[in-house]
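REVIEWER CHECKLIST
Item 1: Sequence provided? yes
Item 2: Single chain? yes
Item 3: Sequence as submitted:
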Amino acid sequence: MVAADSSRVTSRCSFCTKPESEVERLVEGPGVQICAGCVELCAEVVAENRASEAARVAEGVPKPREIRAFLDEYIVGQDQAKRALSVAVYNHYKRIQLLSGGGHDGVELAKSNILLLGPTGSGKTLLAQTLARILNVPFAVADATALTQAGYVGEDVDTILLQLVRAAQFDIERAQTGIVYIDEIDKCARRSDGATGSRDVSGEGVQQSLLKILEGTVATISLKEHGANARSGRGYQDRDTVRIDTSHILFILGGAFVGVERIVQARVGRREMGFGGNIAAWIDADKSDLLADITPEDLVSFGMIPEFIGRLPVITSVRNLDRDALLQILTQPKNALVKQYRQLLQVDGVDLQFEPGALEAVADQAIMRGTGARSLRAILESVLVAPMYEVPSLPDVAAIIVTQDAILDHASPLLLLRNGSEVPLDSALSLQSPPAGG
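Item 4: Structure as written out by the authors:
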């Protein structure tokens, strides 16, 4: 008769310590076991954490007028876009609050994803970035031109979500209440050239790939495949994948949509060319005005698929920046370029001044380049790089004076010395002894 082996240890759940005989199922891993009941409990805890984080963000969302006031501090003009964005953002986070608290009475609340149209350099990215700042949520920017359909060489839509996870420092709950801005989305329009010999890997396929994350889905992101490191994330150490629910992520898509105004103009023209119609008015209509009248049908005619536009219920536009707006951008917002450069130079005890006509010349040059506010920094940087390089090493400089000739004719900026005299930068340098080593 052989005695029973009393040394055999009964498998137990590492969390609740129940033996295998008392649980529905026990899943074993290297040195750890977990029962089905604890798995279910963990899932509930994770869901509660997600809901509480979403509710926390939603409760702190300012009212539309407060959002608009904050946008006004950083962005000049664009009144229509600011109003539309303020309402859309407020509604988006109210939806989160209702869904998290169960107070929606069974009503299906659609996401308020936003399509923002307008020319390059008109502030689309800055609008989205500033919204994320006021809400204190993670923010990620992606370029649609880099996206390809899954299975092709290039970035897929998972890369967008990974950027948001990184912006949240791998705090998944925070990432799930963030904002994603996807620029150049118009470059994903379906080709209408009749080509049939190759797949459209950067057009309709990308739109199809974005559909689910825009609407809301649970996506599994491979950290290993994208070279990400989640070791700093809470509870995600050493994982190869993370799951992220996009239901509460606000997507703002932007694009110039060059040529769509002709589609709008043709539609408006057909309506206006009847008896008593003002044909000249719609022929000469400003492109920005035409974008303000755009419809989902116009965007479908441009090459966006109907299902994609259907995930973007809020459509608004920004206007071209005129000379006055560019001048205001240079001097008025909290992040005005002149204020930024002046602050940097004050660290060296040097003031930054502009002669009459200099800033106007900067605005005119930006208009000539056709890239809106984006070129303002480049123009100022090209003028200021030499004095910012030299002045910290020059004694007795009280101020740098930028003249109109420095902007238009590449003349040397002036230096105001502490004795009250003004000298061109080139002349001041010629009076200095050359530094050791040339």
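Item 5: Key structural point noted by reviewer: The first strand starts at residue 26 and ends at 29.
Item 6: Recommendation: ____
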